[in-house]
Design brief:
It is elongated, with a radius of gyration of 25 Å. It is built from 10 helices and 9 strands. Helix content is about 35%, strand content about 10%.
Length: about 350
């Protein structure tokens, strides 16, 4: 229901509290209930700043793409700052998009931990359209920080990596594979929490026939996903590795990948080539995270977390790389030496004959 805004102002509050729940798979019938309750609701029209909608005052549009719109809103009854996510009006007739949004809310309700924005329940008799609402947190994404020119030190990235590995582990214990870990989906809160955003293409294992979107963003996709293989815990950890690699080097380990491109995966350049201050143990860890072969990566988020926390005290062994990648000068030295040997041999043969 839409009314005109009043002239009153509200104080912004951020509810950052969260409970850490034991992760277990949720029965499929609960997802069915959510789908049945949500998919037939109308998609709201494009909302303007100041509009009152289902008890929420629209502040502004946070993000908009061809599929979804995110609004920053304020709950009238509590003056709590929130984020409202819905489908773009032009996609209102798309049944798959409707089901995916309902599935996303269902997953977000289960991600009850400090590593994620928390779903704010909206009573069924109050909700008149297809959307869901989460807590708002002051701060910026890692992508925004990098685009703004922020330089991250290795200790800062280590702290971010530890929090992200805990968050990804929390998802995996709930049988959720994110499929789109990247700097734009990593939120650096002013409360010093690191939160994982956007479960729009996440897999639950119970959503057959719902998800149609290709996993993730090409440059952050593991080679097996590029080859259209299944997502796994390790593909999330690979994407985390690319995120940290990019944050420290401003480059992708295998170069930027365009949509539907079939890249050739060689050996990633060591981060110290671009950041000499990167310690060897951290470099080894990043190279293990982004290894092209899944068997050479970390198997679980818990294994990664342990390696991050131990640091140099128990450094991991990086995947084997070619001589050219470890030090490009060495291969040219080898070629030069071989050439000198061949020339000397030819000279000898000329002299003796």
């Amino acid at each position: 229901k839409t009314t005109e805004p009043s002239a009153s102002t509200c104080t912004v509050e951020v509810d950052a509290s969260a409970l850490v729940a034991d992760g277990q798979a949720v029965p499929d019938d609960m997802l069915s209930d959510v789908l049945a309750a949500m998919v037939n609701l109308p998609v709201p029209p494009l909302l303007k700043s100041g509009t009152i909608f289902d008890g929420f005052r629209v502040i502004d549009i946070l993000h908009r793409n061809n599929t979804n719109i995110l609004y920053r809103v304020e709950e009238e009854s509590t003056a709590r700052a929130c984020v409202l996510k819905t489908i773009a009006p032009e996609r209102a007739s798309d049944a798959i998009e409707r089901r995916q949004l309902a599935h996303e809310e269902w997953l977000a309700r289960r991600a009850v931990a400090r590593f994620f924005p928390q779903v704010i329940p909206v009573a069924s008799d109050r909700r008149n359209a297809l959307y869901y609402v989460q807590t708002w947190h002051e701060g910026q994404t890692l992508a925004q920080a990098l685009e703004g020119g922020r330089h991250f030190t290795v200790p800062e990235l280590l702290a971010i990596g530890i929090k992200l590995s805990r968050g990804i582990g929390a998802l995996h214990r709930r049988s959720i594979i994110h499929r789109d870990i990247k700097p734009a989906n990593v939120h650096l809160g002013k409360d010093e929490e690191v939160r994982i955003l956007d479960l729009g293409v996440a897999e639950s294992g119970l959503a057959a026939g719902i998800l149609t979107a290709r996993a993730g963003t090409p440059s952050f996709l593991a080679p097996e996903l590029i080859a259209e293989g299944p997502a796994s815990w390790q593909t999330d950890l690979y994407a985390l590795g690319v995120t940290l690699y990019y944050a420290i080097t401003r480059r992708y380990p295998y170069g930027e990948v365009e949509p539907f491109q079939r890249p050739r995966f060689g050996d990633p350049a060591p981060p110290s080539r671009y950041r000499p201050d990167s310690p060897q143990w951290f470099e080894n860890l990043l190279l293990k995270l982004v290894a092209k072969e899944p068997r050479e990566r970390f198997e679980t988020a818990e294994e990664l977390l342990l390696a991050l926390e131990r640091g140099a005290a128990h450094a991991v062994t990086p995947p084997q790389t070619s001589l050219a990648t470890r030090d490009p000068l060495d291969i040219w030295r080898g070629i030069a030496i071989a050439s000198i040997v061949v020339n000397l041999l030819l000279l000898y043969l000329v002299v003796v004959t």
